[in-house]
Amino acid sequence: MTTTATSKREQVLAAAEVVFARKGFDGATMREVAEAAGVGLSLVVYHFTTKEGLYQSIFEARQYVNDDRLARLREVTDPQAPDALDRLVSAFVDPVLDLHDDPADVWFARLVLREASDPSSQDRAIISGLFDPMAREFVAALERILPDRPPGYHAWAYLFAVGALTQSSFDARIDNIAGPDAAGGKREHLRRFLTAALRHS
Q: Are residues 141 and 194 both part of a single domain?
């Protein structure tokens, strides 16, 4: 694939993140993505064939985020270390919140929120194929760090943490509740909230 073709493909993927994040999988069309990317519909079809193929490609192109999370998690080799839980939470949170630092990247975080909360996502293999393998490693690590919890606790705790993390992709709500200055401490507040919830629940 030539450099020009690669850049056009990336241009389409960037536009598709915004369109799908705003409209959802069912609401968005390939034509809308093409218009947002400033390319012809035929080029989008050439690179991705179908809307499903385009949608899948967005998440595959961003899989480096989950790879980074797993790499950081695997560095937590001593589950009894005093900072093991803090490091697990940082591994879970920080690569995602890094996306929030760039207005272009934050659209992917918002798309993940939409996909995770969409009942029809069960018809696609995005969450089950690209997120659940990582989830199982985090749950297993939680079981090692917090071994005295009842059955089912660790998996539910992971899903509750996902809810808090994905909801953090929009700052408009916190602006409305507490003013624009409140959004600046998001990373530290989220880390502390999740760590305390896991440690004391």
A: yes
Render pLDDT for 15-45 as a digit per residue (tens, 0 to 9). 999 999 999 999 999 999 999 999 999 999 9
pLDDT value at position 4?
A: 66
Give every CB contact of residue 117 below 8 A, 6+ residues apart in sequence: 166
Q: Return the closest-CA partner of residue 83 out of 164, 199, 190, 188.
A: 199
Question: What region does 118 belong to: left with phi over 0, alpha with psi -120 to 50, or beta?
Answer: beta
Backbone angles phi, psi at 35, to 5 degrees: -65, -40
CA distances from 116 to 42, 76, 104, 167 (A): 30, 27, 20, 11
CATH (domain of 42): 1.10.10.60
Same domain, 34 and 55: yes
Please count the CA atoms within 13 angstroms of the CA of 31 that sit on its side-chain side: 1
Same domain, 25 and 46: yes
Per residue in 171-186, pLDDT tens? 888 888 888 777 778 9
Long-range contacts for 26-33 (Cβ within 8 Å, ≥24 apart)? 26/120, 30/54
Can you give the residue range of the structural domain that contains 35? Answer: 3-60
